[in-house]
């Protein structure tokens, strides 16, 4: 990881879709720089392009034009194999719908990224335990997702995102399927990852103060939550940055 | 992803849709079973035909004879006389033609793959049983003929030894003798049959003042009749190097061949009415057709007399299998002799069975082709069902290659399981056909034969074929799964 550069440097990125004769400009010539250790909230209404931008940052999608530099490497020009490695080792992703595999136990779900990373089998149990400990789910490791509450499932999804020790966490509406109290718990958990030594008080800039943890990019449409946890709020509308607010 | 992890995930996925995957695997198994059943019958029939043909001795035998000169000399003034040095009327000899003598026989016997070399002994004799008698042809049979299937259902038994004074009759001859003697066919066994035949006896070199040679007699052969002696003298007057003496010898009837002809072969012994051990037949030195050739061909006669050794009109040899025929035949040709075998016939037979096996294989494979559609269907359904799972795997870092391999392993595993079960089912079907055939043959009074065979290469080949077909069927679904857009897949509910 190139700690001197930005976690993400998005340069004039567009993502256009063709729907019949019409062209949908989901992301349109958008530029954004996210520093290492920063907590950025992408805020916007439904269909504004924030999730598309998150998918581009994750390497799940490719831009129509422009460049995305992640940890000093342009992921827009990467091969499919390199992008898979980027998703596996550089970032961790949390989805609104959790996307745990229902036939697997929590332990097995969390182990999946380790399998994909070809981590030696001997190391895996300890790494899985460590990840489940961080989300306080060690006691439920043998349970299947259907046996857990929504909040627990999302915590398990966070454990799965953390197990490969990525430097960046991408969260796409992680509280969207949760009640407000549980949603706040999840965001507290993410905040704990961002500030492992303790959360700075509200209003403190993300660039100074407490020790930096993971870079977090949170997609949400709830402004209050964004204002409460993020160092910077980037409001997106019609695929472009409408406003940036550093907190 | 490592192979072990892929295998674990594939096995988990297969277990999750156990009913569908089991049915697909059974489809493959049925396809493999039909393939194995068809080919096992083809292979079994081929083995059966080869076994039967090999037992006739036709396909591992080579018939050897001296090469014929390009232009045979006419009989000229030397006909019937021994060649003498300086004889102006001596015919043109062929010094390039190698005689088929004892030295050549020894050389042929020493060739690799040759198990037996024997001369053809085939002569006309009068077979007498009591007061009745009839003319027949008698052939000498080598000991190896005992494996001939003509003796499978014979009455009595084969010769007790290679030098036993025993005779086996063909059924027509036996029936004729039995009718003449007013006894049952089965009563012939153990009776004495006397063979009367012209015997060839060597003449000593003519020495002035020497006494005339005695007729050769042995303990069991006699040549007493006055008319016979007169005949011998008459032939001797022709100036040949041997005498022809009427002789008779008693033999014990030990068997009657009911079906088939043990003498059929490239040497042309077929059609004989009686068979005696070859060694005994050689010792009898009966006058044969080849002796007439010697009389006609003065060059041969001169050579025989000159060297004083035996010359064979032809030799028959048996190899240790049909596969040895071609190299042995080639070696004998380089020795300077003409050969004849039924190798070409076996080649055509093998070609015929190769075509039969191919056709059976194609018909058997049709079922497997249908089963492969089942695999494609199952995997396509799996992709639809597991679309979100594939999206999750990709989001977590699975490469296209990982996803493709995962589906390939699932297809291959179904193919392997189907292949294993299918070989077992095919084996069972073959056994059932074999059982039914044996039952039918038993009821028809025909000896049961094994017409079914599953050799190891067929079992392994069928399993490998099932895996290959399954992997081929998995190519399109696996590629589709690998190309799946993770963003679209994660949106899928």
Brief rundown of the structure:
Chain A is of the alpha/beta class. Chain A has helices at 50-58, 80-90, 106-116, 124-134, 150-162, 180-194, 223-229; strands at 8-19, 22-34, 39-43, 65-70, 73-74, 91-94, 168-172, 215-220, 232-237, 240-246. In chain B, a hairpin with a 2-residue loop joins β3 (122-129) and β4.
What brief labels describe this structure?
heterodimer; A: 247 residues; alpha/beta; Rossmann fold; six-stranded mixed β-sheet; four-stranded antiparallel β-sheet; 7 helices; B: 493 residues; alpha+beta; Alpha-Beta Plaits; 3 domains; six-stranded mixed β-barrel; 14 helices; 11 strands; 16% strand; elongated
Subunit arrangement of the protein: heterodimer
Shape of chain A: globular
Average predicted local confidence, pLDDT of chain A: 87
SSE run of chain B: HHEHEEEEEHEHEEHHHEHEHHHHH
Structural class of chain B: alpha+beta
The portion of residues forming beta strands of chain A comes to 25-35%
Query: How many whole angstroms does the radius of gyration of chain A measure?
Result: 18 Å
H and E order of chain A: EEEHEEHEHHHEHEHEE
CATH architecture of chain A: 3-Layer(aba) Sandwich
Largest interface: A-B, 27 and 25 residues
**How many domains is the backbone of chain B divided into?**
3
Strand order of the largest sheet of chain B: 3-4-9-6-8-7
The name of the CATH superfamily of chain A reads P-loop containing nucleotide triphosphate hydrolases
Strand content of chain B: 15-25%
User: What structural category do the secondary elements of chain A indicate?
Assistant: alpha/beta
């Amino acid at each position: 990881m190139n700690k001197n550069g930005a976690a993400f440097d998005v340069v004039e990125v567009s993502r256009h879709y063709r729907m019949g004769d019409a062209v949908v400009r989901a992301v349109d010539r958008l530029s954004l720089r996210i520093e290492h250790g920063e907590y950025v909230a992408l805020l916007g209404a439904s269909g504004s392009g924030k999730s598309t931008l998150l998918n581009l940052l994750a390497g799940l999608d490719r831009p129509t034009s422009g460049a995305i530099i992640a940890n000093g490497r342009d992921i827009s020009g990467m091969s499919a194999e390199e992008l898979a490695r980027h998703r596996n080792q550089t970032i961790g992703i949390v989805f609104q719908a959790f996307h745990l595999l229902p036939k697997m136990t929590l332990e097995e779900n969390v182990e999946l990224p380790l399998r994909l990373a070809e981590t030696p089998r001997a190391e895996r149990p300890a790494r899985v335990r460590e990840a489940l400990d961080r989300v306080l789910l060690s006691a439920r490791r043998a349970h299947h997702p259907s046996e857990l509450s929504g909040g627990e499932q999302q915590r398990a999804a966070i454990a799965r995102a953390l197990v490969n020790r990525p430097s960046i966490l991408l969260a796409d509406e992680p509280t969207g399927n949760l009640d407000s109290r549980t949603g706040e718990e999840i965001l507290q958990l993410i905040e704990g990852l961002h500030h492992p030594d303790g959360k700075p008080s509200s209003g403190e800039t993300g660039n100074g103060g407490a020790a930096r943890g993971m870079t977090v990019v949170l997609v949400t449409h709830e402004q209050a939550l964004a204002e409460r946890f993020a160092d910077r709020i980037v409001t997106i509308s019609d695929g472009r940055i409408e406003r940036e607010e550093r907190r | 992803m490592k192979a072990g992890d892929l295998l674990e995930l594939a096995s988990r996925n297969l277990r999750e849709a156990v009913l569908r995957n089991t049915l697909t695997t059974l489809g493959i198994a049925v396809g493999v079973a039909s393939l194995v059943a068809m080919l096992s019958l083809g292979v079994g029939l081929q083995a059966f035909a080869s076994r039967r043909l090999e037992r006739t001795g036709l396909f591992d035998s080579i018939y050897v004879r001296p090469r014929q000169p390009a232009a045979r000399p006419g009989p000229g003034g030397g006909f019937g006389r021994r060649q003498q040095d300086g004889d102006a009327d001596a015919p043109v000899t062929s010094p390039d033609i190698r005689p088929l003598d004892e030295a050549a026989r020894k050389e042929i016997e020493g060739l690799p793959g040759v198990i037996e070399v024997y001369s053809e002994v085939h002569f006309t004799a009068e077979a007498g049983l009591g007061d009745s008698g009839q003319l027949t042809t008698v052939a000498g049979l080598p000991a190896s003929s005992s494996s001939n299937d003509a003796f499978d259902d014979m009455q009595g038994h084969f010769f007790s030894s290679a030098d036993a004074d025993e005779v086996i009759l063909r059924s027509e001859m036996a029936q004729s003798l039995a009718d003449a003697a007013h006894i049952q066919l089965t009563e012939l066994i153990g009776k004495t049959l006397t063979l009367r035949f012209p015997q060839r006896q060597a003449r000593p070199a003519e020495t002035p003042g020497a006494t005339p040679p005695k007729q050769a007699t042995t303990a069991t052969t006699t040549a007493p009749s006055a008319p016979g002696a007169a005949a011998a003298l008459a032939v001797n007057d022709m100036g040949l190097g041997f005498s022809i003496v009427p002789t008779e010898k008693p033999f014990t009837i030990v068997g009657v061949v009911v079906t088939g002809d043990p003498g059929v072969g490239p040497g042309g012994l077929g059609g004989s009415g009686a068979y005696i051990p070859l060694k005994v037949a050689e010792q009898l030195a009966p006058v044969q057709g080849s002796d007439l050739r010697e009389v006609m061909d003065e060059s041969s006669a001169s050579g025989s007399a000159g060297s004083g050794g035996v010359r064979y009109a032809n030799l028959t040899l048996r190899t240790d299998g049909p596969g040895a025929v071609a190299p042995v035949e080639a070696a004998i040709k380089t020795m300077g002799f003409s050969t004849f075998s039924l190798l070409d016939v076996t080649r055509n037979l093998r070609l015929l069975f190769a075509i039969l096996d191919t056709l059976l294989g194609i018909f058997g494979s049709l079922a497997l082709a249908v089963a492969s559609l089942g695999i494609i269907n199952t995997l396509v359904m799996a992709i639809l069902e597991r679309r979100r799972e594939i999206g999750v795997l990709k989001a977590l870092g699975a490469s296209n290659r990982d996803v493709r391999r995962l589906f390939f392993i699932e297809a291959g595993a179904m193919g392997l399981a189907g292949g294993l079960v299918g070989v077992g089912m095919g084996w069972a079907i073959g056994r059932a056909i074999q059982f039914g055939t044996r039952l039918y043959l038993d009821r028809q009074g025909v000896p049961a034969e094994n017409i079914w065979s599953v050799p190891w290469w067929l079992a392994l080949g069928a399993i490998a074929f099932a895996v290959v077909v399954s992997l081929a069927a998995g190519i399109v679904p696996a590629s589709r799964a690998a190309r799946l857009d993770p963003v679209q897949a994660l949106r899928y509910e």
